[in-house]
Amino acid sequence: MSKFHKDPNYYIGTVCLKVMDLNQSIVFYEKILGFKVLEKNNVMAKLTVDGKTPLVILEQPEGIKRKSKRTSGLYHFALLLPNRKDLAEFIKHLLNIRYPFGTADHLVSEAIYLNDLDGNGIEVYVDRPSDQWKWKNRLVHMDTLELDLHDLLKESEQPWTHLPKETIMGHIHLHVSHLDEAKTFYTEGLGYHIVSTYPQAYFLSTGGYHHHIAINTWQGVGVPSPSENDVGLNWYEIIFPNEKTLQLQVEKLRQIGATVTKDGDYFVTEDPAGNRIRLVVR
To answer: Which of 20, 278, 43, 23 has its CA nearest to residue 169?
Structure first.
């Protein structure tokens, strides 16, 4: 596992999505992405790569409707692969089945982007070694450049069959309504640090990662939250190293006016744009 996705960092765990058609979505996540179904019923499926931990949960609530335009919510969740070979083989797989995707070289990482059947954004990426990342004034230099696909595809050794069991949730990128409100929530409330900026966007992390969470107002300033039965993000997890740290951040969230409730063995809160978060210790 990446050193940035374990103690003492605060990193992203399970992402739960609302979808229009559960069975069709399962086919996409199995056949296109290479997940395995860990658990399933008529309205929910837990998807895994290691046979133990759900990385993505799909839910089909009653009365679900297509995604509204111009709201806060999910921009993309990002699956971090172990190495370049895995990304190369996944890209070859997408090329072979002619599934559309975009690419980017972010300097700190090499990435591709695609959407699921409901338009939920997905990034699949591999990090460059962290000793190659360039920092100045506590900000890491990132960019969006053309990915050298020819060079990357040389790494491919075998046909893609499934996501490697070491695949993790690398980060999540969210649409928010007001950037400053969201910045306060994630920095003062949750303890993240701004490590990069972009027009109308902040990238935040703990432990010197290029980002565990990104927030933007690219859907527009002041956009509403999606309705409860809209397709899209239901909730995502932030994993804390221990109960003491979790309790500390819960108190800080309450100090800035955020509502935090206990639900079994985790806490639930929402950022100012209505993105729901589960705070857990794993």
So the answer is: 278
Tell me if 226 sits within 8 A of 67, measured CB to CB: yes
pTM listed for this prediction: 0.97
- Please tell me the total count of domains within the chain: 1
Query: Which residues, 6+ apart, have CB-to-CB distance to 142 below 8 Å?
Result: 106, 107, 108, 196, 198, 203, 210
User: CB-side exposure of 161: number of CA atoms within 13 Å?
Assistant: 4
Question: Which two structure tokens, joined as six digits, stand for 184?
Answer: 């306060």
* pLDDT band (50, 70, 90) for residue 2: confident
In which domain, by residue range, is 192 found?
Answer: 3-281
What CATH number did the domain enclosing 172 receive?
3.10.180.10
Of 129, 114, 255, residue with least CA distance to 191:
255
Per-residue pLDDT tens digits for 153-203: 999 999 999 999 999 999 999 999 999 999 999 999 999 999 999 999 999
Count of C-beta atoms within a 10 Å radius of residue 142: 21
- Tokens found for residue 151: 């060079």
- Which tens digits make up the pLDDT trace of 140-165? 999 999 999 999 999 999 999 999 99
Query: How much is the pLDDT for 1?
Result: 66
Residue 160's contacts (CB-CB under 8 Å, 6 or more residues apart) are 34, 89, 90, 92, 93
With pLDDT > 90 as the criterion, what percentage of the chain qualifies? Answer: 97
Which residue blocks in the chain are alpha helix, DSSP H?
A: 22-27, 84-97, 149-153, 179-184, 243-255
CA distances, 235 to each of 13, 123, 267 (Å):
11, 17, 12
Cα–Cα distance, 164 to 81 (Å, whole number):
7
